Give the backbone structure.
Amino acid sequence: MSLIDLANPSRFLALTARVLPWLAAATVILLALGLYQASLAPDDYQQGATVKIMFIHVPNAWLSMLVWGVMSVASLGTLVWRHPLADVAAKAAAPIGASFTFLALLTGSLWGRPMWGTYWEWDARLTSVLILFLMYLGLMALWRAVEDPSRAARAAAVLTLVGAINLPIIKFSVDWWNTLHQPASVMRMGGSTLDKSFLIPLLVMATAFTLLFLTLHLAAMRNEILRRRVRSLQMMQASRIAFSSEAGTGSRDGSASREIGAT
Amino acid sequence: MTALGALIRRDVRIALRVGGGALIGVLFFLTVVVLMPFAVGPDLNLLSRLGPAILWLGALLASLLTLDRLFMADHDDGSLDLITMSRTPLELACAAKALAHWLAAGLPLIVATPVLGLLLNLDMVATGAVALTLLAGTPALTFTGMIGAALAVTLHRGGLLMAVLVLPLSIPVLIFGVAASNAVIVGPTPFGAPFSILCALSLVSFVIGPLAAAASLRHGLD
Amino acid sequence: MSLGPYASFILTSYLAVAAVVAILIVWVVIDHRTQQQRLRELEESGITRRSGKSATDTR
């Protein structure tokens, strides 16, 4: 089944119905495995048991960026290839991405509290994630502001792509601004020199959360397709009522015209 | 080229004549800066320390709030459709319109900066630094904000939603603009590094802004 | 497994993640039911898709 075949929403729905249970099962298994391994992981010599927050913070932070990437690819699909499923994918991903970004912020702040003594520090990473969160919210506001889904899709696609180009620039500027205002006394989250006893549970958790996103995303895309069907059927209903009342049969005696229209 | 020149001349003339509204941006800028001492207190030392930040925030808001007029008037009277259909590439036409908007609404802000610097107790060098960074940075604000203006006209929604969408994108310009001004006034950091990055941001926005605005107009107007 | 002096922070963050993920799952499921319910109502009132297939049939 190729990408072209998936352009047919009915085929996509069929595929989703077949794949979703397996994806959900895989997510649950991996999540359980990851949580088990995370509970067995030793304490960090510096951070103590708070290092356990890393096992959920890092996957959420990773997803906050991955989801924007997925939306950017979908936006290219909307603008360049005009793939019919692309705007459905972009729209369904936005609230999920915003939730993961919110969780990354929340867990980061809870992780920082024992380290910094405050819940919020204008730390470079937290600040860029906060800006990313604001952009997700703006994007969702844009989706909600416009009635016509395809019109909203094209506007959102332009904004998503501009955001994708701008996010690295924003990240770089915030890093620069941060080093200007506070010398590197802030704790480094994560870091590349992770011990194996941390790395393996972290990778399992990251995979599990990625699968979780895929599951939620597919399900939300299915809902979005159904929502559009409802919308088009309601439009048909409205136009039929308007037509039947115009034709003089009256909207109350609509059953005859409905039968004609339904054939 | 003559078509673009004509477009720029036309837009500047429209913006500057009665009802064009370009100079309201300067008035807004002035009002925001005058409001600041009421919020933080009339302490001149504090004001001179916050001066560049206040001026930059004021200029940022003033240049973004005037922007939703960029395509709206042309859309209302139908000339935007003519521009879209003309043989001139839409990207270049967008760039020309943004340039005209900057000439009419952005330059007056920079001209007003020395007067406002006086109110905020900034000395000559500091005022000059802020004006220079504004000169380098406001084109970036206009060209990024143009994306929001193009979205606004295709969605028939303006105002607050567009400001919410565009303001996060202007954070880098704000950071480097204020950093470069502060480097002259207080900072141990050199002026050159943040200022060159600010110029680079402007150059990048010259590419991204027209492309994105043209894409939005092309896909949205139908 | 001892969580040390900051157990409340660790537990809060895990619970928060669990809560938000649960909200997402519930939202997706309820949304699915609502849309299918609406499609069924529309079909019962005689509105059918141009293809003539059932709109609620996802197989």
